[in-house]
């Protein structure tokens, strides 16, 4: 859970704390309008709200929904993977002590009360310990594949949101450019004031979509690295279990 809190803290600092600090630092400073009248800086939250409205609430809402759903899935996966992580060396020591003191039944009871994919794999291996070492290895490999599939659950949806966010942004870009060209056609003029609104919509939606994709991609890569780490631990622990059973001569 420590890694999860660290990652969320960094995200909070990037998205909220830093901009808010900049806004607070500049609070009270003034800028001038075109007529020279001093105006107080707009708070950061109001700036975000204005950007959301200027970008078009329909497409900006879709991008926001994509971000919320993607982050929800990412956080759920990170919590699951942190709970699934186990100290395999310590677990192997406990299993060996249980095998020495109470045999296979004691070790299975220990594993039943231990959470995580490694404990589940160990339990399946001990279930087949009376059928020979080859059957234990096969059982461990097969059940390991099932556990990897459980860890990868939901990743396809996160990948979909990563691809979907910039596409929604680019669609808003196209619509913004269409709006700009329609304004040119109506005004029969290509001055900046005529096309500014359409171009602003195009740029805001593009940046928003790319921002969402970047944030979700960071979480996605972090999740993949966690899965790889746990998978490596599972492979190493499986070899340790087979060696342990051979050492105690618990297989035929």
Describe this structure in words.
Helices cover about 85% and strands about 0% of the residues. The chain has eight helices and two strands; from the N terminus they run H-E-E-H-H-H-H-H-H-H. Strands 1-2 form a two-stranded antiparallel sheet. Helix 5 packs parallel to helix 8 (about 190-245) and helix 7 packs antiparallel against helix 8 (about 190-245). It is rod-shaped. The two termini are about 40 Å apart. The relative contact order is 0.14.
Please outline the helices and strands:
Layout (H helix, E strand, L loop, with lengths): L1 H25 L3 E3 L5 E3 L3 H11 L2 H28 L3 H25 L4 H11 L5 H19 L3 H33 L4 H56 L5
Antiparallel strand pairs: 1-2
Helix pairs in contact: 3-7, 3-8, 4-5, 4-8, 5-6, 5-8, 6-8, 7-8
Quickly describe the structure.
The chain has helices spanning 2-26, 44-54, 57-84, 88-112, 117-127, 133-151, 155-187, 192-247, and strands spanning 30-32, 38-40.
Number of DSSP E strands: 2
As residue ranges, the low-confidence spans are: 7-35
How much is the radius of gyration in Å? Answer: 28 Å
The general outline is rod-shaped
The level of helicity is over 70%
Largest sheet: 2 strands, antiparallel
Straight-line N-to-C gap: 41 Å
Order of helices and strands: HEEHHHHHHH
Number of helices: 8
Return the structural class: mainly alpha
